[in-house]
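Lay summary

Proteins are chains of building blocks that fold into shapes. Our project writes down both the chain and a compact code for its shape. Here are two examples, one after the other.
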Amino acid sequence: MWLKILILFGLSVLAYLLGSIPCGFILTKKLAAIDIRQKGSKNIGATNVRRVAGTMPAAFTLAGDLLKGALPVYLAIYVMADADKLIGDIYLSIVALSAFLGHLYPVYMKFKGGGKGVATATGCFIIISPIACLSAILTFILFMFLSRRVSAGSLSGAAVLPVAVWLTSHSIPLTICGLITTSFIFFRHKDNIRRLLSGTEPAI
């Protein structure tokens, strides 16, 4: 019993620590010898990495940010395989949010300078609810190409996510997890929203 509790708690902590790994910062330091926090939008996410350091570092950043969301959630599903569905969904939500918040507020960077969370959230939800996540991804792609702005696609995909999670799972904990995730993504995009409304957001 206590061993199981220790494992569950440990995985939640591991999810946060994995989420905190600043992939964009590390990769641009290694591959381009720059501090991404001082360039472009100063964000460590793949969009700014592509703008500042090029396609390859951005692709690696995207892969890393996806993986640090997907891996702990996958492990959570494994350790909760025999649990009641409600309890399992609550725990999956805790682990997903731990990884997601780690990316936003990374301990390795003194809780500052994290990304906007879109890729890590995608990694989490592609495991939690693949169909819902695919719906959000398709919405992202559609609005990104229509507007020629990554932020518009990100916000549109985030808005669709909790609705799609509810329609595909009818799980209250997972839907709440989706709502919290969406709220943080919108908060982290507040400057982008201002620029979109004023027509000054940079196009792709």
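And here is the second example, written the same way.
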Amino acid sequence: MAIKIEKKIKGYNVVKPEDKAAPAAAPAAPKEAPKAEVIQMHESLERPETLIGSTYKIKSPLFEHALYVTVNDIVLNAGTQHEQRRPFEIFINSKNMDHFQWIVALTRITSAVFRKGGDVTFMVEEMKAVFDPRGGYFKAGGVYMPSIVAEIGTVIEQHMKMIGLIHDPEMDESTRRLIAEKRAAYEAGAAKKNSDVSAAPAAAASSAADTGEPTNGFPPGATLCSKCNTKALVLMDGCQTCLNCGYSKCG
């Protein structure tokens, strides 16, 4: 059957029989601009009028004046069996203004992470892994700190352990006994080598005072342990052994 075309032909297309059977395609919907997926970890908590916290003092040879780190906690589910303290904000104060900018930036970012919620304990390891290109220092007790940021991370770790957010694995009795035996054996061997046993403790104390190195009861000649960062590594029976954590290079 002939069909009369009354309009001007602008184009043409060959229609196959299978094309007639296919349903008409729906018009394509307009594409929306991509949006960032924001995940809210918990409900927003407004800052209470009063917070509880603790202040820690940091005395570093890198600073002329001491740093005072204050960590404030928010109490969740107060008065119930599920009551829990969580760090909410941190402040660092000092008379030294040389590093004021990065200290303020560090406190604001850390406080923002605390308020975000979730597992915030990762901040400890991140901060303890910061190394000062000028070199680290030893704090009281012979513990090595690679930077002032690392010591701030250690303070935060100490606070999280205090409120129960981080649980430090306790040393078992067998390990304690082994460390005590190794320490006694080392001290007995050192006393045997020294001809004047009575003068040995005084000489060791005098040597430690002259060098200004805190030994915290460990032998003055002890070196740094790579596991606990404490100057408690001594040579026993041809093997480096730590008198603080029990680590041994010989296994």
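What can we say about the second shape? Residues 36-41, 202-215 have pLDDT under 50 and may be disordered.
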